Every structure is written in C-alpha cells, then in structure tokens.
C-alpha cells in the first residue's frame, strides 16, 4: 500500500502540471489577443483616418486643402532655353539646321485662383491666374542683350495659312513679309523673342484690318509668351470632393463646356482628370490618374514610374503616358492629331488646332524619344533622364509635393511656293525647335517638416505600435510553444527512465539484504561481538 509521502508527491506533481497548463493557455490566449489587437489597430486607424479625410479634405473655405489649392505654397520656377539657329542662310538653301541651346532664362511663377464660387451640387468654379517675375541672378545673362536667331513666326505662320490660296496672292504676301518682316529667320534680343515685338508686316496688315474690318481683333506683335503674364486660362468648374473623395478636384467643365470641340475625334475632346495641382487621397501605384491641360487642349493619362523621397516624405512618382506621343499607326486614337498632309512620326504631338491654326507641335526637350526629328537637326542631345516630365504625389493626401514639366515647342515649316525662304527646305515638312521649358515646383523644407509632424508622424507611430504589439504576441506564442515542447520532452524522458530506475531500486534492495546477512554472520562468528550482544 502506497505511503503518505508517495501520495503527496503524486498530488504535487499533478498540481504543478495543471498550473503549467493554465499558465500556458493564458499566455497563448494573451499572445493571440496581442496579434488581434495589432491587426485591429490598422483597420481602426485606417477607418478613422479616412473618415477624417472625408471631413477635412473637400474643398471649402477654411478646409485643410483650401489654402494650398487656392494659392499653392510651393515655389514654382519657370525656366526657358531658346534654340539659336547658327546657319540660317544654309537652312534656307536646303541644309540641316545647326542649333545652339541658350539659357536658362529663369522666372519665379506665382499661381492663384480668383472669382471662386461654390455651388450646391458640390462643385466650385474659378479662374487661375499666372504671374511671372524675371530672375536675372538665376539666368544665363542679360535677357535684353543676348541676341537669338530664331524662326520668324509671322512669316512662317502666314506661309502655312496661305498655302491653299492662289499663287498670285502668295507671291504678294511673301514679298511683303520678306521686305517688312525679315524673311524666315530673324535675329532679335531674347526678351523680344519671348515677350513680343512689333512686326512690320503685321503692322501693315493691322492697318488694313482696322480700316475695313474694325470689329475684328488683330494683333501686330509677335512673341512666344506674349499675353501670358498675369492672365488666366479660362474658367474651371471642379468637384469639391464632398461625398465622393475620388472626384476631388476633378474638372467637370472648362469655359462652361463638359468637353472640348477642338479635335476631330470625340475621344480626344474628353475632359478627364484634375488640373494637376492636387489629386484625391489614397493614391497607389495602380491608381488611374489624369490631368487636363489647357496649354495643349488635352487630358493626359499618368503612369506610375517609381517611388520617391521628397524632403523625407515618401511619395509615388508618375509620368505622362508615352502613348500620347505615338504615331497613328501604333495608336489609332492619335489620328485626331494628324495633319491634312499626313500624320507625324512618334515623339511629337501636333497642337495646331489648339493654337488657332498656328503650326506648332510639342515634344520632349532635345527631341527625346523622337528619333526621326532628332536626326533632322544638329545640336540636340536626347536624354530621358534629363528631359523627362515627373510628378511626385504624397499618397495619403494626394498632394503634389514635387513636379517638373519639361516640354519643347516646335514649329512645323513647309515648302510653300511664293514664300521663297521655304521653297528649298531640306524636308517637305521641317520640324524646327523654338524653345524648351522646365516648370518645376517642390515643397520647401519648412512645409515638409510641418507636414511630417502633423500627418506622417501619427501614421508612423500607429504603424510602429501595431508591429510592436504583433511582435510581442508572436514572441509570447513562440515562448509558450517552446516551453510546452521542453516540458513534453522532459516527460517523455521520465517515462523512458522509469523502468530502469525500478530495476536499480530492486538491485539496491537485494544488495542491502545481502549486506545485512553478511553482517549478522560476522557477528555470530566473532566471540567479542557475540558476547557484547549477549550482554
């Protein structure tokens, strides 16, 4: 029958096992709870964050986005490089143009919205004005003294516009422009090329127009950026984002119309996307983003390029889809931009219909990605990395925190009889670069620090807390699993050792009996021990 000590030991062993199991179960449940809390924090914070954005983001006087939308705080720099033609006489005789890049001519650009009117259907209308301030310290030289040889725009444009009239009238117009305007090429200060000058031939035409057609608007000055300073680009109507943040700042109408009437194809006339200053919150690399540009009368689709870091703010980098620059053979939708004489090769886009018939085409600077036209001139150095357009967007808010719009303006020269300077051009249609620009804006360091402190820091803290709690839960589960594994191994070893211990105990018991008998025999045989025992 088992002794009281043996029963006590068995009871204590069972109690310790029960305690260990309870502690293990408790730790396991607590660990799973930590993981669940960690995952739940993400969903809870995302929900609260999205609900706050729905309240704070929509355009309204005093909202989080209103101030930056009405007058962007980022400093915008507008840089221009002019193409100087170093061999104008040779070009007229049929040789390739040799071009020299002159610039930059730098300007500080300010944008602000005026006549802001909100409507009950969650839309707002406005006019956006642009102002330019010359920065001589950031320019290549004195803009009023640097002489540039460039295409004489009045001569070139008139030749194109008169190609369908009778040769007799073309000859008269060609001689008049050659005598009073200077032929196909002119040499003038850079300031006049950009901001405008009074053309002699146009002044004669202006006098005739005012005499016979007094109500017809006519301008006798010519310049690449004439009439662009402190002016607007038409009236915009955009969605405020209230009730639907995916429509935030998306253009609904321009100059009162829901679509354009510029291009012969309906798809090209669609007004899609924002004005490019802001996008809706929650931007991802797979987001479908579009920009409506009044400069070229088109909506441009953006494609994701790569992640970016702007002043310590994680951002997503996008660029315009290259499809818009493909020829009509590769992309049939682009046949809307073809000329009457045919379609242009890839890399350039005809915008003459957007510019009132002026034969202009845009491309990337230095004819990047336009090999056909890059080979037709000397002096360009195409580079996708140096001359590409990029837009970096903060994904949580949709704010544009860095952008570079790089674009080259070209004029399409054609051989037109009667305008003698064009009759021997090297190609029937010569794509002649006029200038290229880089319009860039970037969030300043002070604004970046405020942005990180008020928006990114809470997001990062919540993300850190989430992973810490999940990590603690995983560690606890691992510790519980390891402890249970060690205890199970220990029990298995005890079970394996139990039979051998019993054998050892039996042997020890037998040995003790033998030892006791041997001692008794010695006592009986020893007289002294026997007498002492008797006594």
TrEMBL record:
Keywords: Cell membrane, Disulfide bond, Glycoprotein, Membrane, Receptor, Transmembrane, Transmembrane helix. It comes from the Eukaryota. One of its GO terms (molecular function) is scavenger receptor activity. It is a multi-pass membrane protein. The chain crosses the membrane at residues 464-488. It is found in: Cell membrane. Its main location: membrane. GO terms for cellular component: cytoplasm; plasma membrane. The keyword Nucleus does not apply. Pfam families: CD36. Belongs to the CD36 family. This is Lysosome membrane protein 2.
């Amino acid at each position: 029958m088992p002794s009281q000590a043996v029963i006590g030991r068995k009871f204590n062993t069972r109690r310790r096992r029960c305690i260990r199991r309870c502690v293990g179960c408790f730790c396991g449940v607590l660990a799973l709870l930590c993981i669940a809390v960690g995952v739940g924090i993400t969903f809870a914070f995302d929900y609260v964050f999205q609900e706050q954005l729905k309240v704070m983001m929509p355009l309204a006087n005093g909202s989080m986005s209103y101030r930056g939308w009405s007058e962007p705080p980022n400093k915008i720099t507008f840089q221009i490089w002019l193409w100087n033609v170093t061999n104008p006489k040779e070009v007229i005789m049929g040789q390739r143009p040799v071009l020299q890049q002159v610039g930059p001519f730098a300007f500080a650009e300010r944008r602000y919205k005026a006549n802001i009117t909100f409507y009950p259907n969650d839309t707002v209308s406005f006019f956006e004005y642009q102002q330019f301030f010359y920065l001589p310290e950031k320019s290549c030289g004195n803009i009023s003294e640097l002489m540039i040889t460039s295409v004489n725009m009045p001569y070139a444009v008139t030749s194109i516009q008169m190609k369908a009239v009778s040769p007799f009238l073309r000859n008269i117009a060609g001689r008049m422009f050659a005598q009073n305007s200077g032929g196909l090429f002119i040499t003038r200060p850079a300031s006049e090329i950009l901001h405008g000058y009074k053309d002699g031939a146009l002044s004669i035409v202006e006098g005739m127009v005012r005499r016979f057609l007094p109500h017809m608007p006519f301008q006798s000055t010519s310049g690449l950026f004439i009439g662009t300073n402190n002016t607007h680009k038409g009236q915009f109507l955009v969605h405020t984002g209230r009730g639907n943040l995916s429509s935030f700042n998306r253009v609904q109408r321009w100059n009162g119309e829901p679509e354009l009437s510029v291009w012969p194809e309906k798809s090209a006339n669609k007004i899609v996307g924002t004005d490019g200053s802001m996008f809706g919150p929650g931007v991802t690399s797979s987001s479908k983003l579009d920009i409506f540009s009044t400069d070229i009368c088109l909506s441009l689709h953006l494609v994701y390029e790569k992640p970016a870091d702007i002043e310590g703010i994680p951002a997503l980098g996008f660029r315009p889809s290259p499809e818009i620059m493909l020829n009509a053979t590769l992309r049939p939708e682009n046949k809307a931009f073809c000329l009457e004489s045919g379609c242009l090769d890839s890399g350039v886009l005809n915008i003459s219909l957007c510019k009132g018939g002026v034969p202009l085409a845009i491309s990337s600077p230095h004819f990047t990605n336009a090999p056909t036209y890059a080979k037709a001139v000397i002096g360009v150095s195409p580079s996708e990395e140096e001359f590409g357009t990029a837009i970096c967007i903060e994904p949580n808010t949709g704010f544009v925190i860095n952008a570079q719009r790089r674009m080259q303006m070209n004029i399409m020269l054609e051989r037109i009889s009667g305008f003698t300077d064009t009759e021997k051009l090297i190609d029937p249609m010569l794509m002649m670069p006029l200038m290229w620009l880089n319009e860039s804006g970037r969030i300043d360091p002070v604004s970046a620090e405020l942005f990180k402190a008020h928006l990114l820091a809470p997001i990062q803290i919540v993300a850190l807390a989430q992973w810490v709690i999940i990590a603690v839960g995983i560690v606890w589960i691992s510790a519980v699993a390891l402890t249970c594994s060690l205890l199970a191994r220990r029990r298995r070893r005890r079970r394996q050792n139990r039979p051998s211990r019993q054998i050892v105990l039996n042997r020890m018991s037998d040995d003790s009996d033998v030892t006791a008998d041997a001692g008794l025999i010695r006592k009986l045989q020893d007289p002294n021990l026997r007498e002492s025992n008797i006594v």
